[in-house]
């Protein structure tokens, strides 16, 4: 990798410690990309956690002539989070959130995800002002550095206007807390040139009537092109000016360590409708009347955008019949109180009545119907991404026009798409503010493709800046992509002020050169990202980073996006014939990308194009298996009854050894094979005792089949768990109490959902196991007449999603089976028939990832709320990383994945902790020191009328 000298690495390590300096080829490769179309390999990646360390990094960067850039989530779309120098990763640390003044303000650090801030503000009925579409993934550092806005916040509630104070560090090393009453004097004393220079810039701007009028005019619309020159107008003291110049500065002036923001009210009462028009002119003519009527959101969609989603499930059928040239507006009115609902209805209907519509306006309060309407709008960007040709990138740009000229601007953009050969391009956007996004697919794999892109961008710049005097960037930040065109938009005088701002704060151009200010007219054409085709499972990836907050290995090794980027880098190096560089990445790939992937599939739930990176992991794991391993897995799948007995026996013997010699001795014994390269499971307390082998139960006229999973049949109680009935006994007792006659198949032993084989990439063993189980379920259920209840959520999910690997006969059987999770069964069929006789004071839940994917978390909460006065689901609850056996094979994965959730669970001070998978319960017990059990034990205790049956750990 370029310029990665040992002296630089040593200097960085002296500041942040060797473990926080990443220089391995695989690390540099995965941090070379953000969500933009650029790829730049850094010299090193560092992870500081204090302001003092950051100022130390400034000194290292200066001494080694290495520019420095900050990266939070890396969801930036314009190349702000990649650098050829030192990349400072803020995502591992800097996650503190402090709610202030009853939710009226909030203090945040740059590494916390925006949605996580809103989750902490929710109990106060408040939220952040900025509401970017990437809020579930983007972090506060990016929200501030890009001056983010979004669908509803407009200009008034963006990051700039909701900012109260900052703590920041200048490249000189000076640290300023603008909330300190002496902050301006501190700036004057320690940075006199900067202090005086800002006063001079303000005086110069205020003395130039023409330029002053232009600045005021430009910021009436959304505008994030260049530096926030309105700071020179809006504020008098240099520290206040600088504080707001940093918003939208994209890390080019200083490091933002923390910020205090004013919040805005959450408006839970919503009334939405999708209005359809003959043409874009009619749609745009409706914007002002609807805006003046109080619409909080006005999302414009051209016909191409609507066409991109019209075939998707749940999308209104009427969209498929729209004429060419039609357009739509998704309109939403919002209120804070239920009493506002009638007024919202009246305003919406009155505003829509005179509009020229293709179909009558239909508005709805229904949450599911609203979600379906927003799915139309939110599906447009990913639809282009999913449909694009492999090897092409997705380009999304945002521009702003005067609202009164929006229709003409849309038409002109559509003409540019046609002229430059972009047939898949679509337009949508926040019409209330005149803010449009356009999305298209673009190859950067040939000089001809890059030249076409360059010509297109030149025409876009002329259209926006000359014809309409709009903004080239409305909310995504300037970045590399628009840095060469800032002067074209603002003019020579304003651009000169921006250059002086940069030279005052960062005279050595240390921070993020090439971003926002660039003297290279082709800055946007350098370092363009080629996307080689590598695997069908992930070729559609746009590298947006939306998946990363859901990944359990994100703080240990790689994220789903990074796994894909690393795989692409291996493919690129292979095509170039660079065997040495490829080997340097491949040496670390197995552990970082494969061994520590939990294959939980939660990444797909956040991915705009529904990529499950776990499928790639399974495929690559499968490629590592030889004939012997495949043969052994097939034997295991066909002899699960013997395997279960062996596991129970092994747990019993190991437990005896632990009691006699201690856990440390047993742990040492299980680590011995690893010394010779054999990856055996480790004995890590707490370990369960062996479960009692289940006995069959065949009542007369059963109402449901209860299939205890192999985990339930093998893993018994944990140390500290009260003695009492087993999970199987508890489930059957609950059924009897609720009038459900549960059939427990006598031959349940030996049947498996196949998930353990699937997660390891043993395809044939997976097929064998799941086909045997589905055939048995067909028999147990009286050929589909009875529902089959599974007591372990990952097993339920594995069975519900196995159809594609079943034999034709089993597919027909599968289609007539009803497979229920025990959480669902308890919520829908047991709880309504049971009397709750006692309640726990407070309980903590861990919704396992498979439960989340099946949308059954509300069912778990419903059961818990019936049985407890207070239910806590930790805000950072997520996949525990145990992943079947990862918790015994790679325990550091589980430790990392559960770290934050465990702290929140411990702080809750609850009397009971519950989940729906035994291995996940082991993981959380290990992490918290509190015993986690099945939710069925809670339900049984709460509805029991005979104290002789079962036990329950009392609350604190």
Count of individual beta strands: 26
Low-confidence regions = 952-956
**Sheet with the most strands: spatial strand order:** 15-12-14-13-17-18-16
The chain-level mean pLDDT equals 93
Largest sheet: 7 strands, antiparallel
Distance between the termini: 55 Å
- Count every helix, treating DSSP H or I runs of 4 or more residues as helices: 43
Nearest-angstrom radius of gyration? 30 Å
Judged by helices, strands and strand pairing, the structural class is alpha/beta
Query: What share of the residues does DSSP label as strand, in percent?
Result: 5-15%
Helix content: 40-55%
Categorize the overall geometry: globular
Structure description:
The protein is an alpha/beta fold and 956 residues long. Among the domains are: 266-442, 3-Layer(aba) Sandwich (Vanillyl-alcohol Oxidase, Chain A, domain 3); 637-825, no CATH class; 838-943. The protein is 43% helix and 13% strand. It is built from 43 helices and 26 strands. It has a 7-stranded antiparallel β-sheet, sandwiched between helices. A hairpin with a 4-residue loop joins strand 17 and strand 18 (435-442). Helix 8 crosses helix 11 (238-245) and helix 41 packs across helix 42. The protein is globular and about 90 Å long.
